[in-house]
Amino acid sequence: MTFRPLTDGYAVAPQITPEDLAALRAAGFTTIIDNRPDGEIPAALHAAGMRRAAEAEGFTFVENPVVGGAITLENVHRQREAIDAATGPVLAYCASGNRSSVVWALANAGRMPTDDLIALPARHGYQLEGFRREIDRLAQQGT
Questions:
Q1: Using CA of residue 132, residue 134, residue 137, residue 139, what is the dihedral sign?
Q2: pLDDT at 22
Q3: Strand partners, 93
Q4: pTM
């Protein structure tokens, strides 16, 4: 299991499994955000089972399924709320980490410079330049 830190308090990863949880705990994560819709994955990795396994390991687990190409304001607000409520580092996962990077950038619009919100994920190969206008719009709205 590989995770990619965007900041000291937030990292993204491809799909995790219950077997990854001990390593994530050892790495210091306290909150896990599932950005992957159940319809994309085998039943063994659906959110309900991942929640049980994560909570049994002491994690806060947040379901925020993000459909690729259809991120909603509700997704953005839920991601922001989960990040703000976290008592330590957050790991968000999806299929590759890309959607978790995008929703993080949108959730942090206005909190960090847009250039940073695009550049930090780019260090790991996530290309968010196409979201610049949306990040700037959310920053201006204070959303």
A1: negative
A2: 96
A3: 13, 34
A4: 0.96
Contacts of 23 (CB under 8 A, 6+ apart): 1
Contact 89, 7 (CB under 8 A): no
Report how far residue 134's alpha carbon sits from residue 95's, in angstroms, rounded to the nearest whole number.
Answer: 22
CB 32 within 8 A of CB 24: yes
Sheet of 90-93: strand order equals: 4-7, 10-13, 90-93, 31-34, 60-63
The answer to whether 126 and 97 have CB atoms below 8 angstroms apart is yes
Long-range CB pairs of 14-19, under 8 A, 24+ apart, other chains included: 14/93, 14/94, 14/95, 14/96, 14/97, 15/41, 15/45, 15/93, 15/94, 15/95, 16/50, 16/91, 16/93, 17/45, 18/49, 18/50, 18/53, 18/54
Contact 97, 14 (CB under 8 A): yes
Enter the CATH code of domain 4-141.
3.90.190.10
Residue extents of the structural domains in the chain: 4-141
Task: Give mean pLDDT in consecutive 10-residue pieces for the chain, a chain of 143 residues.
Answer: 94 97 97 96 95 97 93 96 98 97 97 97 96 96 76
